[in-house]
Write a structure and sequence with these properties.
By secondary structure, the chain is α+β, with helices and mostly antiparallel strands. The chain contains 5 helices and 10 strands; from the N terminus they run αααααββββββββββ. The protein is globular and about 50 Å long. About 4% of the residues have low confidence.
Length: 204
């Protein structure tokens, strides 16, 4: 198996692990709130059939779908996934089990390497983008700042119409409390580390 095929297999396995974990969590929360599939669909704007497929681990949800469901469930997913206080502090997640999110165009993947305990104020992802891949995001809460450190290839960062090019070894820091987009403008895959700091004091 080539390195590219091995990498794709790892990403596919991570996406499958995320779907299974997320599906169980969504179902658990929905039942805890005594919501039917139809009621959750109405509150989240996600089709009932899609929610059912997610709960049965039959589909890999997009970032937008996960966001809508999290909002409808009051972002309580964090509390369900959080480790118990008596769990060991050292946590190791194998590559195959690292959750992976996928952009709407299917060309950008985000491996969730941050800690679930800090998700409300610090989020950390490893980003892989195919040529032409684009991740378009709505603004986060006011004062949020994102840092994109490019490890290979070239990314373009756009925030409110302003565009900056970031090459390997460079880092872009930008307000993400407004619509923002990252793109791979090169001819080869690009990778980066992305850290999102919510309610960053410097922006208050």
């Amino acid at each position: 198996m080539s390195e590219r095929d091995s990498r794709k297999a790892g990403l596919d396995a991570g996406a499958l692990a995320l779907s299974g974990h997320l599906g169980k969590t969504i179902q658990r929360l929905r039942k805890a709130y005594n919501l039917s599939l139809s009621e959750l669909a109405e509150q989240s704007g996600v089709a009932k059939s899609i929610i059912s497929q997610i709960e049965r681990n039959e589909t890999n949800p997009t970032l937008a779908t996960i966001w809508r469901l999290s909002q409808a469930l009051d972002i309580s997913i964090e509390r369900v996934l959080a480790a118990h206080e008596d769990d060991p502090f050292i946590e190791v997640t194998p590559r195959a089990e690292t959750p992976v999110l996928v952009s709407e165009d299917g060309k950008v993947t985000l491996a969730i390497v941050g800690w679930i305990q800090t998700v409300e104020w610090l989020q950390w992802y490893e980003v892989t983008a195919e040529p032409g891949g684009e991740l378009d995001s709505e603004g986060h809460q006011r004062g949020s700042v994102e840092c994109l450190s490019v490890t290979s290839g070239t990314f373009e960062v756009e925030v409110s119409g302003r565009i900056e090019r970031v090459e390997a070894g460079g880092t872009a820091r930008y307000r993400c409390d407004r619509r923002h987009t990252i793109r791979n403008t090169g001819d080869t895959p690009a990778t980066a580390s992305m850290v999102c700091i919510l309610k960053a004091a410097v922006m208050e």
